[in-house]
Write a structure and sequence with these properties.
The complex is a heterodimer of chains A (366) and B (461). Chain A is an alpha+beta fold and 366 residues long. Chain A is built from six helices and 23 strands. A ten-stranded antiparallel β-sheet of chain A has the order 11-12-23-22-21-16-19-18-17-20. In chain A, strands 6-2-3-4-15-14-13-10 form an eight-stranded antiparallel β-sheet. Chain A has a five-stranded antiparallel β-sheet with strand order 5-1-7-8-9. In chain A, strand 3 and strand 4 form a beta hairpin. Chain B has four domains: 77 residues, GMP Synthetase, Chain A, domain 3, CATH 3.30.300; 166 residues, Rossmann fold (3-Layer(aba) Sandwich); 69 residues, Helicase, Ruva Protein, domain 3, CATH 1.10.8.60; 94 residues, DnaA protein, C-terminal DNA-binding domain (Chromosomal Replication Initiator Protein Dnaa, Chain: A). Chain B is of the alpha/beta class and 461 residues long. The longest helix of chain B has 22 residues. In chain B, strand 1 and strand 2 form a beta hairpin. The chains are: A alpha+beta (366), B alpha/beta (461). At the A-B interface, loops of A face helix 2, helix 3, helix 4 and helix 8 of B.
Chain lengths: 366, 461
């Protein structure tokens, strides 16, 4: 095999693939990426057997072939390389060299025949989704997914396609986020749970471009855009009917300046205990919001910020981190916080926007 | 033959002919999901495995199936339904409801299942700080342990105590646990030997209760693990321990560990774990000096209800030098005598009582033992050690032989030279010197010598 390509193209392609490759696995070849000439392009592929990534790179191919190279070493080399072009070629039976303007790297290869075959999807449904919406949805929600293995079905982001509408949701059963957007073209109804790791890879690989093509069957999902492909297993299981917990009516509502709210919560966090609890009291009649935290070892914090309120007083104890995570992803200057009783879930969202909603459970008060 | 038995047999056959890594990667979590009319459907965990088995191992699997079930004509592969591990204990009350404060509930459920973690503490109340005898060889470790017991999780975390056998590592660790138990009731303390940690982990993997295992360890406030050198080479245990460690460490929970050698010298332990161990306070306990040995003897005797005469204590302290447990054994023997004869033994009688303990009939180490052990250790022939070769791989073992002959047999330099192919005594002096110097900072060499000595004494034992 021998090909010449622009260094940054190769770098981008390897960078897209390299992250899924794990450093230590039982099978040494899983630490490698596959380089293969394919119809005038070079395919770079890597996998950890749960997620597979394929990236294509424009190249001038002199001799067809395929090799595998250690991912981390290759990445390290490409990162610090100067010059515009690189030449990759096989030497003898078990080696390859990568030559740049003023440096070259000789690497050991492993037989490409032993490299796992990244599966193709059979009987898959096809959807085309706008990249920006999908990226925002997944990015705003992924950190709300559960991280433990106690309930595997919550360890991912839920996507439900229904006609022209897509609902994306994530929850760890203490907090929930939902993002709704519409598709340019109608699709069949189906839903899936995408593992957190896959979502993170998606966010990294597909941040540009207008659309992403999605194919999915019951076990696997494939995201595809131009010269990048991400394939992953799906989490099996039934996602809980979370819509039941999103409050539809409210007894108290406050419009709060987002920045002020973040500042106040951060200040309160200094005196909060190990459950990260802060007490938030809405006093709509006085247009005030109080934030308190107390820790017998440290001390006590009392703060107050203005808000625009409606309804009766409401005092809830919450994990401030849940609020900070959500507020960081909201965008409008003012956010809306709605609630009913001190034990009922709270709804947090951008003012005058319905796409993104967060639901946060109060802590049981002590 | 049932489907399960058939697949087990087939796997057994395949395991023999593919590499271990390949077997684990591609055949883990596979099973026969259906079998009829000569067609077998094999369930595999993911798409990658399906592709690989279809493309690379199909013929192989088919052949193996046929040898055990002649009627098999065809094999197909499906991606099997993932069965989540059993988790009756953590099943939320209702699927649809957003459980109020379910964090609390989960913890309380967990506590309900194990109402008395403290009963599981495993601490021996005999081991307290007040019963620990302090000397210069262990005062640092003592001070660190005491500080940790005073403010767990904040001061020295993790605390690693290392030292040889029978020098009080376990005593100190248990004292930390006991003290915290006394002063801070309600703290969840767990003392566990590394070996038991491994067994628990293996069991929980077998019973698919790994999540429960994780939860159990992550709720602990003070985790004490003894003899972590036994984790060496057990990768999965190390990984699990690493995660538990990180979790506890991040939440400011105290971790106390012991090992018989410093983390640097534990072979086959992952680098990231090693660096974690080195990140906290490392204190060593050394062999007790003479005065301390006497103090220990007297204290132990007092605990047993008799006074040890000065000359007897001195006699024992001179004879037993390296191991506190042996000192305790000696006191026990004398205690038995006291109980039986109703009198405190004199020095003469003590010598007799302890003769089996102190003058263990031991064959002397011979020159050829040392040559043989070192040769085997470095995999070189004895002749090579003796002849005049100056190859690097021979020179080091030869110098180690010189060093051991000098240290263990107290041979003179010229005598050693004569034994090793008539070398000059200055050559021998240089060799011994070189090894003693490198021993000061070369941990690998220390470890090698320790192993060689172990083998040497095991071989003549």
């Amino acid at each position: 095999m021998r090909f010449t390509c622009i260094r940054s193209y190769l770098y981008d392609a390897v960078a897209a693939v390299e992250r899924v490759v794990e450093k230590s696995t039982a099978l040494p070849i899983l630490q490698n990426v596959l380089l293969k000439t394919e119809k005038g392009r070079v395919l770079i592929a890597g996998t950890n057997l749960e997620i597979g990534v394929r990236a294509y790179c424009q190249a001038k191919i002199d001799e067809e072939g395929e090799i595998t190279l250690p991912a981390k070493t290759l990445m390290q080399f490409l990162t610090h390389l100067q010059g515009e072009k690189v030449v990759v070629k096989t030497t003898a039976a078990t080696g390859a060299t990568i030559e740049a303007e003023n440096a070259s790297l000789e690497l050991k290869t492993l037989d490409a025949k032993d490299f796992p075959i990244i599966p193709e999807l059979s009987e898959a449904l096809q959807v085309t989704a706008p990249t920006k919406d999908l990226h925002t949805a997944l990015g705003s929600l992924v950190f709300f997914a559960a991280s433990g293995e106690v309930r595997p079905e919550l360890g991912g982001v839920f996507c439900a396609f229904d006609g022209e509408m897509v609902r994306v949701a994530a929850t760890d059963s203490f907090r929930l986020g939902e993002y709704i957007f519409s598709l340019p073209k109608k699709t069949n109804t189906f839903s899936c749970i995408i593992p957190t790791r896959t979502v993170n890879e998606f966010l990294r690989i597909f941040s540009n471009g207008e659309n992403v093509d999605i194919s999915a069957n019951t076990n696997q999902i494939l995201f595809k855009q131009a010269d990048r492909e991400l394939i992953s297993r799906l989490i099996e299981g039934k996602y809980p009917d979370y819509t039941a917990v999103i409050p539809t009516t409210f007894a108290t509502r406050a419009y709060i300046n987002r920045e002020l709210f973040i500042q106040a919560l951060r200040a309160a966090s200094a005196c909060s205990g190990k459950n990260k609890e802060v007490k938030i009291t809405l006093v709509p009649q006085k247009n005030k919001l109080h934030i308190e935290s107390r820790n017998s070892d440290v001390g006590e914090y009392v703060g107050e910020i203005p808000c625009e309120g409606k309804g009766g007083d409401l005092a809830v104890t919450c994990n401030y981190q849940y609020f900070l995570d959500a507020l960081g992803k909201l965008e409008s200057e003012m956010v809306s916080l709605e609630g009913n009783k001190e034990t009922d879930p709270l709804l947090l969202k951008n003012i005058n926007a319905i796409k993104l909603r967060y639901v946060i459970m109060p802590l049981r008060s002590y | 033959m049932t489907d399960q038995e058939l697949w087990q047999t087939v796997l057994g056959e395949i395991e023999l002919s593919v590499s271990r890594a390949n077997f684990i990667t591609w055949f883990k979590n596979t099973s026969i999901s259906a079998r009829e009319n000569g067609g077998v459907i094999v369930s595999v965990p993911n798409g990658f495995t399906k592709e690989w088995l279809e493309n690379k191992y199909h013929k192989f699997i088919l052949k193996a199936l046929r040898t055990h079930a002649v009627d098999v004509k065809d094999v197909r592969y499906i991606i099997g339904a993932y069965t989540p591990p059993k988790r009756e204990r953590f099943e939320p009350i209702s699927e649809n409801r957003f459980d109020i404060g379910s964090l609390d509930e989960q913890i309380s459920v967990a506590e309900f299942e194990q109402p008395s973690l403290i009963n599981e503490v495993n601490l021996n109340t005999r081991y307290t700080f007040s019963s620990f005898i302090i000397g210069s060889s262990n005062e640092l470790a003592y001070a660190a342990a005491k500080a940790v017991a005073g403010s767990p999780g904040t001061l020295y975390n993790p605390l690693l105590i290392y030292g040889g056998v029978g020098l009080g590592k376990t005593h100190l660790m248990q004292a930390v646990g006991n003290e915290i138990y006394q002063t801070r009731p309600g703290t969840k303390i767990k003392y566990v030997a590394a070996e038991r940690f491994t067994t628990e982990l293996v069991n929980s993997i077998q019973e698919k209760r790994i999540e429960e295992f994780k939860q159990r360890y992550r709720q602990i406030d003070v985790l004490i693990i003894d003899d972590i050198q036994f984790l060496s080479g057990k990768e999965k245990t190390q990984e699990e321990f690493f995660h538990t460690f990180n979790h506890l460490f991040a939440t400011n929970k105290q971790i106390v560990l012991s090992s018989d050698r410093p983390p640097k010298a534990i072979a086959a332990i992952e680098e990231r774990l090693r660096s974690r161990l080195e990140g906290g306070m490392i204190a060593d306990v050394g062999a007790p000096e003479f005065e301390m040995r006497i103090a220990i003897l007297k204290k132990k005797a007092q605990e047993r209800g008799f006074d040890l005469p000065e000359d007897v204590a001195m006699y024992i302290a001179t004879k037993i030098q390296k191991n506190i447990r042996e000192l305790e054994g000696a006191v026990n023997k004398i205690a038995a005598y006291v109980l039986h004869a109703k009198t405190i033994p004199s020095l003469k009688i003590t010598e007799k009582i302890l003769s089996s303990l102190i003058n263990q009939p031991k064959r002397m180490v011979l020159v050829k033992d040392i040559l043989k052990t070192v040769g085997e250790f470095y995999d070189i022939h004895i002749d090579e050690i003796i002849n005049q070769s100056r190859r690097k791989e021979v020179v080091k073992p030869r110098q180690i032989v010189m060093y051991l002959l000098r240290e263990e047999l107290r041979s003179s330099y010229p005598a050693i030279g004569a034994k090793l192919g008539n070398r000059d005594h200055t050559t021998v002096m240089y060799g011994c010197d070189k090894i003693s110097k490198s021993l000061e900072d070369d941990l690998t060499l220390q470890e090698e010598l320790r192993l060689i000595r172990e083998r040497l004494y095991a071989s003549i034992g």
